[in-house]
Amino acid sequence: MRAGAARRRVQTTVIVLAAMMAVTASVLGGGLLVVSSAPFDDAFAEQNGAHLTATVNAAPGAVAASANAAGVTATAGPFPLVTVVPEAGGERTMPFTFAGRDTPDAEVDAISVVDGEWADEPGEVTLAAGEGGTSVPPGATMSFPSLPGSPVLKVVGFARSVSLTADGWVTAAQAAALAPSGTPESHQMLYRFDSAGTAAAMETATAAVAASLPADSLAGSRSWLDVRNAAERATAVYVPFLMAFGVLGLVMSVLIVGNVVAGSVGSGTRRIGVLKAIGFTPGQVVRAYVGQALIPAVAGTVLGVIIGHVLAVPILAETSDAYGTGTLGIPPWIDIAVVGGILALVAVTALAAALRAGRLRTVDALAVGRTPPTGRGQAAARVTARLPLPRAVTLGLARPFARPVRTVAMLAAIVFGAIAVTFAVGLSTSLDAILTARDHDIADVLVRPAPPELGPNGMPDGPPPSLPDDTSAITAAIEAQPGAKAHYVVHNAPAAVAGTTGTTELVAFTGDASWGGYTLLNGDWIGGPGEAVVPTGFMKTTGTAIGDTVTLTVDGERISLRVVGEIFDLKNDGMKVYTDAAGLTAPMKNSLIAVDLEPGTDPAAYAEGLSRALEPLGANAEPFREGSSDMITVLNSLTAALTLLLVAVAGLGVLNGVLLDTRERVRDIGVQKALGMTPGQTIGGVLASVTLIGVIGGVLGVPAGMALHDAVVPAMGDSTGIRLPRVALEVFDTPTAFALGLGGLVIAVAGALLPGLWAARTRTAVALRTE
Amino acid sequence: MTSPVIELRDVGRAYDEGPPALSGASLTVRAGEAVAILGPSGSGKSTLLNLIAGLDRPDSGTVTVNGTRVDRLGEAGAARYRRASVGMVFQFFNLLEDLTVADNIVLPSQLAGMGRAAARRRTAELLETLGIDRHANAYPGRLSGGQRQRVAVARALMNRPPLLLADEPTGALDRASGEDVARLLRDLNADGQTVVVVTHDLELAKACTSRTVELVDGHIVTDTAVSR
């Protein structure tokens, strides 16, 4: 058994790699699928998390009555809710949504204090930790000088609400005291339902709650499914494509193992006869051949498990940090299931192929080589002999027809290799397109605030810099610099949206920003004041649709905007609203001016000249630089590694098939060489023997790879809660598809090259003596 | 006297650590001669044939065929040499089973790049000369041993080589077929074809050659003219 595995080094290597590939992808894919949701689910169950977090603008009694709504099994609240903007260094910072809760314990959303203590006295606040938390240090104070009585809150601790119900918690009395005068009474109510597992169930339950509240009082709501989706986002994106590679690897393993074992039985028929003649039972012969496949398969699965775990570390690190669960790892049962499953599959495949060896009659097996071969492939040889091509080539072209089963196995390996290459190229192109679509303000030159002065401690001194409130001097300088074609100014302000925690960013434009690289997914671009475009993330989190009106609070001022379009934007989890600056009165910072240049203008030279002009104005100009993404880098690297592995396995599958074929007909090759076939002609003949299957493999594999891409990439988008732009989905044009089609031929030729060289180098006299 | 086709000078060849298969062998074969290389199994007959055919290289000495130093040729050069100068007939025919008789015969000319029309004419001529024209489209598996060896001889002669090498050409044939092949070789020689036959069958040697060279343990021990 061991001797067999060692003797067939190529076949052994092929099985090791195929099993390794299948296990790596399956362990990673299966592991991430299970692990990605585990920390959230555990913590959610422990805290009795809120299925629905509702913001209701009504009196407490009316809000509390909703506990009797259909399907509600438990509630917490109503808690007074307030959105405030603390000030630091004379500057207003990001808005915080505080819930007034005297205790962290509740029937729903039992909050865990992770550092310090719960804010149970007026003047104290406990801030949210981890996901959705803040960067305010412990012991710090938060000042609200613009509120009546200029309250100051001391940060006494940090707590984690898995349901992300607030940015911080104060006592109920403190929350009431923080509410700006004149704002409507707002309360938070938390619900658990008897059925909340699906979006449809949540819609029904939410509708029942809304119906039980005073009319139009439900200002906002957030489903636990959205919270969970956001929590799983970091790892969920990897699952669809890893599953695709896992299935490819699995099918490839079965094909390779079946082909290798069947090939070993076919080429070792006489050996089987000898083994039986000296006393091996059929069972022993079958076990020997199954063992020859299982030994390398075990080695491959062990390697696959190790590599899968190593690759999982950086991907899982993000999820681990979010819940303070310590380092996450792939559960052992995943390893056991994957390893057991793949080894069982290998064993069954090998058994099916090896049974023939057991059934073979000893006398027939010993007679192999002395009996004339069957007439398979003669018709093909006759046809190819008539082709106007060199004879060495036409001899090779006929070979696939002599061994149809082996040809189909090689073809399948090439098809799967071509699928992998096509899928990988498509995925990589899609990711590049996403990266490009993700970048906004893609202009030739960007004008930003000059870098801040550094203080004595090496940190920036004072608040973050911004462009002056009046940008007319800067825009005049832009227009004065030769080469400027168009420009727009970007204004930003933190905003709060009812029913959500964290900050929504309001972005407003002065000037036409439609050329600035904002990829529109649906609807229209901003047509004028009062209109807005929002990312998919915002629409999903707030339940907004195109045509709806959203209300934002900026610096205490309410702004209502009609959503006219959906754009592609991943930043800030998509919690952004883009609108026209005209008519906005809320204070906003001027963060950026994007400049489009006339064709032929050098952006670097323009930026350098403009920077000199802008220096006295506290601004700086730089040419645009494309962004990058760690996740996309990891995805691209994983794709490249898995594709390389799959292509290597496909190439080795071809190599195995051609090697078996070459060895079987080594005497024929010897005869041809004796008749005057040169080494070059010999190699040409062997390569020609895989040309046809390489071409067919490419023709079959490329459309299948494209279909896989078209299924997996949108699934990856869905798993991260984003809708992908068309440029990221429609990535295959005709020249690309044609070039990919040649990939099958490349795999085939690469796999056949070594056997071709071996055939060319084999000494004719030795080949002629070979039986 | 005709010019020499084969000239071996002090040729030696050993495999691995064993005794030399051939040692200090010198031999000259002139154009039009028919020479039988005789000897028991392991005497070095096949080694000698392989060296002349350019299938193997000597460890020492020189092998010159038709003016070409065969011992100096690389793999590609040896292949081109075989196409042009040598036709080979094997004990077990070594026909390609997936090709028809005609396709087997035409193969050496196709490898050598002969024009299609010329190759077709030459094939037809050989099929007729060797009496196998009615089997042109048959596969070798359907032919008798003697017929197969005739196909092998036709294939060997396809490129009109100056030298025909036959390795135990009747070894796999019954008596009648063997005599038929012997007659064929004799006729070819009578038409001027230089023939070297390796055999351990003295009867065959006498039947189709005019000279016998006997090898024992890698040494040429006798070189005798045969009177028919």
UniProtKB/TrEMBL annotation, chain B:
Gene Ontology annotations for the cellular component aspect, listed alphabetically: membrane protein complex; plasma membrane
Domain ABC transporter: 6-228
Gene3D superfamilies: P-loop containing nucleotide triphosphate hydrolases
UniProtKB keywords: ATP-binding, Nucleotide-binding, Transport
Listed GO MF terms: ATP binding; ATP hydrolysis activity; transmembrane transporter activity
Residue ranges that the Swiss-Prot or TrEMBL entry lists as coiled coil: none
Presence of keyword ATP-binding: yes
Name recorded for this polypeptide: Putative ABC transport system ATP-binding protein
Organism: Phytomonospora endophytica
